[in-house]
């Protein structure tokens, strides 16, 4: 007898699909859910098998009626922008297809339910736009940096020579301003070019990296800032540049701490994803690391351009932290995105494990 918790051979080909697929019996009990569905509905096949669909998500009346019609009348159904509420309370907006299965395909299955999150389509479009924008702005910045570096060095050198020639010591205060500002700009130029250094890959443990980030944050923001762990300790190791990955999570978490003025809570959460598409490539396994804060949120005017160079929502910010983080994530063939509202901002970084 086949264990209900094992993938039935009949449906094993559905494991590789990017869309969520559920197979239901005549009582609308779940007989199978593919890995994409496990990710979307935040359940495992072992947990979901044999349970009613309503235990996984609350379906609107239109979808419920479509399921009953498919059972009773053998009618298919396609719906757009349907709202499902997951068992943990999260609301999903999806496109949905219900397909009746012919009797005889398998004795205990009747319906095939396909769910395609609208958010995933929008995220893919946003990601493609961001990548193109990042390439264009990166090329512009490299050209600007090379044009600025030489005259900036000349200004600094001239200020030093002038300082030696000044007879009045009180006037040296002004040359020092020129020198210090020139040094600040030179440092900015170096940081703008930092993302383009060669990677030094090695096998890394993501939790060791996050613990390093946590240690740096707690020492930098001593006081009311709490950095909480929510780790899945079963996560596999991945191949990556340790220093770049530390910089990614430090930049994101430091932005959160600064937005909260060092007071509030940051959660570092890790999970594994199966059969996921990142940067237009399909991977069997990926790591998802979320940096969650309970701060004021990112201003709406900044959200659409926050990964662009020199864009900052904070007074005195350089606007490079998220740009560098995005560059380093892309070096690792991963993705980074953000959802923000007052009281909760979530940065989700997804990194592939192994080859596509």
TrEMBL record:
E.C. numbers: 2.7.13.3
CDD domains linked to this entry: HisKA, PAS
The keyword Kinase is assigned to this record: yes
Function according to Swiss-Prot or TrEMBL: Member of the two-component regulatory system NtrB/NtrC, which controls expression of the nitrogen-regulated (ntr) genes in response to nitrogen limitation. Under conditions of nitrogen limitation, NtrB autophosphorylates and transfers the phosphoryl group to NtrC. In the presence of nitrogen, acts as a phosphatase that dephosphorylates and inactivates NtrC.
UniProt organism field: Candidatus Dechloromonas phosphorivorans
Gene Ontology MF: a single term: ATP binding
SUPFAM superfamilies on file: ATPase domain of HSP90 chaperone/DNA topoisomerase II/histidine kinase, Homodimeric domain of signal transducing histidine kinase, PYP-like sensor domain (PAS domain)
Matches recorded under Pfam families: HATPase_c, HisKA, PAS
PANTHER family (UniProt xref): SENSOR HISTIDINE KINASE (PTHR43065), SENSORY HISTIDINE KINASE_PHOSPHATASE NTRB (PTHR43065:SF16)
NCBIfam families: PRK11073.1
Residue ranges of coiled coil: none
Protein name: Sensory histidine kinase/phosphatase NtrB
Upper taxonomic lineage: Bacteria, Pseudomonadati, Pseudomonadota, Betaproteobacteria, Rhodocyclales
């Amino acid at each position: 007898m086949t264990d209900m918790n094992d993938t039935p051979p009949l449906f094993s080909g559905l494991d590789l699909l990017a869309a969520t697929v559920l197979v239901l019996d005549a009582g609308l009990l779940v007989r199978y859910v593919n890995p994409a569905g496990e990710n979307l509905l935040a359940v495992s096949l072992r947990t979901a098998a044999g349970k009613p669909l309503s235990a996984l998500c609350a379906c609107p009346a239109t979808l419920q009626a479509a399921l009953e019609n498919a059972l009773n009348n053998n009618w298919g159904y396609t719906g757009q922008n349907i709202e499902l509420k997951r068992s943990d309370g999260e609301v999903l907006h999806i496109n949905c297809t219900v397909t009746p299965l012919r009797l005889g395909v398998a004795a205990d299955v009747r319906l095939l339910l396909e769910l395609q999150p609208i958010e995933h389509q929008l995220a893919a479009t946003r990601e493609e736009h961001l990548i193109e924008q990042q390439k264009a702005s990166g090329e512009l910045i490299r050209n600007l940096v090379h044009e600025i570096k030489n005259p900036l060095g000349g200004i600094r050198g001239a200020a030093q020579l002038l300082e030696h020639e000044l007879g009045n010591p009180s006037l040296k205060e002004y040359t020092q301003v020129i020198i210090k500002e020139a040094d600040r700009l030179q440092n900015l130029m170096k940081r703008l070019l930092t993302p383009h250094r060669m990677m030094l890959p090695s096998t890394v443990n993501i939790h060791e990296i996050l613990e390093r980030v946590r240690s740096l944050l707690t020492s930098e923001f001593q006081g009311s800032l709490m950095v909480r762990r929510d780790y899945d300790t079963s996560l596999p190791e991945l191949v990556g540049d340790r220093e770049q990955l530390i910089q990614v999570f430090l930049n994101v978490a430091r932005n959160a701490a600064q937005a909260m003025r060092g007071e509030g809570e940051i959660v570092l959460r890790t999970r594994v994803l199966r059969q996921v598409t990142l940067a237009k490539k399909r991977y069997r396994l990926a790591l998802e690391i979320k940096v969650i804060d309970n701060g004021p949120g990112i201003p709406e005017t900044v959200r659409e351009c926050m990964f662009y160079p020199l864009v900052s929502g904070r007074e005195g910010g350089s606007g490079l932290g998220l740009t560098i983080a995005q560059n380093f994530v892309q070096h690792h063939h991963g993705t980074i995105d953000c959802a923000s509202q007052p009281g909760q901002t979530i940065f989700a970084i997804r990194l592939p494990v192994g080859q596509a």
